[in-house]
């Protein structure tokens, strides 16, 4: 067990949030002897990487709670699948199927993928599949199922009884025209199946009914058993109330909604959960990642190029800072993951609690010794022309005979990821520099210098030789340009590996041959 003093001292954000939950929700947690954390999902589009981030981060808070208390805990992943579809996502097949069913509950719209009973069910199953792939421990709950089964009925009756107080909370936040039509209850039209947003004429609290003006025609509807659903902000508060939620994180764009939902749940007689507002993910253009657009890198793409743990690390770091999330950031995320594993080997317990990989691995940090960075491995894929894991392993073992797949499972997976990432992302963007005569002369001097090196020489000594060649061939005052020349000619990029280490691993003669080929 972790020393309690270190838990008190650490300012790692999952522990900060865990301690805040126990402090803010003390009365409610003690009453039910359980801690409930919730994540929300709107299945109007396919699950995206931001959805994963919310569950991953909530799991990190749960793991921190596990170090503080033995009380039972549960993560509820709630799908708002009774919501009406407002627009057709851009990354969905058979869009006409969705166009014909706009504004109907997501679980009443045919599945354009033709795999499940509805579009909502399809997206729910996709959500559960990728959460299961990451071994998350969660309880899935469907809005449709909870409304229709009557689970929410008592809470809905309470909201009806507090109808005017809730209207008084919401109406001041709306424009003049919207105030005229707003109702916290949205009936499902018996004729079209559409989720209606229409004004209320009468409230019948005794019979749990509401009478609406449906384009001049009176519509009487029970609010129970899935005949009505709630507007978003009221629905969120009702969910907190009915499920006894103690913690929920949400995107920065929902802060205003969280404030209003907090006022509504207090009106119902409970206190809002402990909250955590995180910044949004952006694509390479700086635009918000959206499940309807399908922009940014997808879950499946990340997992083709890197490990789930590297993605979890990306989610852990700086959750209150907006971050770009696209293919080109993957190598940096992987290298940071490897670097944090190495650092953990020499850290104190307090330092380890601040190390992101402790939270990524729920305290079980891998012990494997790292062979090389992912960036270096990508260079090796290029220069060795290896197109399979087996070939690249043979190449690695040629120079590092004491390593094996069995003892280096992280590196073994890394090899496969590197081949895929290089071929899909890097290769097409390579721009190799054609050296001029002076540059050829300097590179030729480098090839000749390597004659003085052998396979037993330390990387640092090889690096010193490279510095010397640069200084003697016009780069004395700017060695950065010397290495930039090597990288652009050999690797087709302005940046590259530490050359002494690369040559030591790749081989002296092999490096000489590459440079000769590039000069030609």
Q: Which class do the helix and strand fractions yield?
A: alpha/beta
- Name of the CATH homologous superfamily of the largest domain: HUPs
Strand content range = 5-15%
Strand order of the largest sheet: 3-2-1-9-10
Defining key terms:
520 residues; alpha/beta; Rossmann fold; 3 domains; five-stranded parallel sheet; 25 helices
Note down, in words, how this protein is organized.
- Helices cover 51% and strands 11% of the residues.
- The chain is elongated and about 95 Å long.
- The chain folds into three domains: 4-281, HUPs (Rossmann fold); 374-429; 437-519, Arc Repressor Mutant, subunit A (Orthogonal Bundle), CATH 1.10.10.
- The protein starts with a helix and ends with a helix.
- The chain is an alpha/beta fold and 520 residues long.
- It contains 25 helices and twelve strands.
- It has a five-stranded parallel beta sheet. Strands 5-6-7 form a three-stranded antiparallel beta sheet, with no helix packed on it.
- Helix 14 (308-316) packs across helix 15, helix 18 crosses helix 20 and helix 21 (437-449) runs antiparallel to helix 25 (508-519).
């Amino acid at each position: 067990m972790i020393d309690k003093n270190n838990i008190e001292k650490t300012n790692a954000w999952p522990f900060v949030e865990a301690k805040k939950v126990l402090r803010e929700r003390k009365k409610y947690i003690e009453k039910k002897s359980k801690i409930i954390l919730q994540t929300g999902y709107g299945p109007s589009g396919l699950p995206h990487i931001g959805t994963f981030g919310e569950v991953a981060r909530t799991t990190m808070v749960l793991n921190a709670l596990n170090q503080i208390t033995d009380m039972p805990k549960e993560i509820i992943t709630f799908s708002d699948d009774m919501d009406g579809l407002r627009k057709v996502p851009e990354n969905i097949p058979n869009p006409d199927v969705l166009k014909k069913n706009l504004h109907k509950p997501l679980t009443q719209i045919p599945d354009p993928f033709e795999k499940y009973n509805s579009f909502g069910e399809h997206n729910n199953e996709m959500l559960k599949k990728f959460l299961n792939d990451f071994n998350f421990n969660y309880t899935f709950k469907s809005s449709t199922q909870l409304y229709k089964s009557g689970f929410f009925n008592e809470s809905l009756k309470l909201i009806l009884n507090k109808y005017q107080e809730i209207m008084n909370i919401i109406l001041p936040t709306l424009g003049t025209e919207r105030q005229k039509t707003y109702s916290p209850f949205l009936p499902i039209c018996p004729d079209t199946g559409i989720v209606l947003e229409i004004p209320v004429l009468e409230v019948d609290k005794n019979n749990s009914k509401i009478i609406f003006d449906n384009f001049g025609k009176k519509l009487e509807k029970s609010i129970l058993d899935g005949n009505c659903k709630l507007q978003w902000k009221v629905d969120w508060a009702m969910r907190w109330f009915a499920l006894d939620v103690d913690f929920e994180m949400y995107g920065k764009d929902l802060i205003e909604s969280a404030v209003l939902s907090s006022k509504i749940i207090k009106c119902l007689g409970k206190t809002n959960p402990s909250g955590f507002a995180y910044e949004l993910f952006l694509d390479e253009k700086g635009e918000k990642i959206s499940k309807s657009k399908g922009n940014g890198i997808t879950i499946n793409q990340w997992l083709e190029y890197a490990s789930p743990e590297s993605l979890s690390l990306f989610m852990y770091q700086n959750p209150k800072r907006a971050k770009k999330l696209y293919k080109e950031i993957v190598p940096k995320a992987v290298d940071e993951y490897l670097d944090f594993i190495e650092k953990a080997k020499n850290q104190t317990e307090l330092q380890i609690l601040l190390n992101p990989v402790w939270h990524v691995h729920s305290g079980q940090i891998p012990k494997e010794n790292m062979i090389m960075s992912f960036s270096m491995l990508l260079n090796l894929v290029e220069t060795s022309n290896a197109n399979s894991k087996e070939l690249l392993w043979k190449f690695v073992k040629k120079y590092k005979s004491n390593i094996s797949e069995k003892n280096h499972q992280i590196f073994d997976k890394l090899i496969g990821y590197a081949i895929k990432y290089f071929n899909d992302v890097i290769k097409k963007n390579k721009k190799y520099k054609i050296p001029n005569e002076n540059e050829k002369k300097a590179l030729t001097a480098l090839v000749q210098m390597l004659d003085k090196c052998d396979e037993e020489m330390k990387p640092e000594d090889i690096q010193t030789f490279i510095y010397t060649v640069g200084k003697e061939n016009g780069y004395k005052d700017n060695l950065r340009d010397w290495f930039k020349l090597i990288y652009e000619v050999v690797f087709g990029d302005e940046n590259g590996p530490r050359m002494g280490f690369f040559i030591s691993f790749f081989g002296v003669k092999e490096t000489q041959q590459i440079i000769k080929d590039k000069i030609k």
